[in-house]
Amino acid sequence: MAAYLVSDVTVKDTAAFETYRTRAAASIAQYGGRYLVRGGSIEALEGSWAPRTIIVVELADLDQARAWYRSPEYASALAVRDEALSRNLILVDGISAR
C-alpha cells in the first residue's frame, strides 16, 4: 500500500534550498518515489493553515518511505536542510486499492 510524505516548507535560503531540493529529488527517485505535488498555488478553503509550499511524495509503502528517510542518500540533503528551509513533515499510510 502506498505511503505519502507531506511537507509544508518555508524556504530560508534560496541557494541552499536548490542544493537540498536537487539532493532530495535524486534520493527520492533512487528509492522509487515520485512527486505528486511540488509547489504550485495553494487555496485555503477552511481553517487557518497558511502554508507557503506543499510537497507530496508517493513511495511504495511505509517501509520504503522510512528506508528513504533514514538513507545515506537522503542524509546528504539533510546536511543542508537547516540552512535551506524550515518545515513540517509527516508520513501518511495510503489506502489499499479495491
Characterise the protein shown here.
It is a single chain. The chain is of the alpha+beta class and 98 residues long. The protein has one domain: Alpha-Beta Plaits, CATH 3.30.70.100. Helices cover 39% and strands 31% of the residues. Strands 2-3-1-4 form a 4-stranded antiparallel beta sheet. α1 packs antiparallel against α3.
Task: Describe what is shown at a glance.
The protein is an alpha+beta fold and about 100 residues long. The protein contains 3 helices and 4 strands, in the order βαββααβ.
Query: What does the main sheet amount to?
Result: 4 strands, antiparallel
From the spread of the alpha carbons, the general shape counts as flat
For the record, give the distance between the C-alpha atoms at the N and C termini, rounded to a whole number: 11 Å
What is the average per-residue confidence, as pLDDT, rounded to a whole number? 95
Total of DSSP H or I helical runs spanning 4+ residues? 3
Amount of helix: 25-40%
The total number of structural domains is: 1
Q: How many strand units? A: 4
List keywords for this structure.
98 residues, 3 helices, Alpha-Beta Plaits, four-stranded antiparallel β-sheet
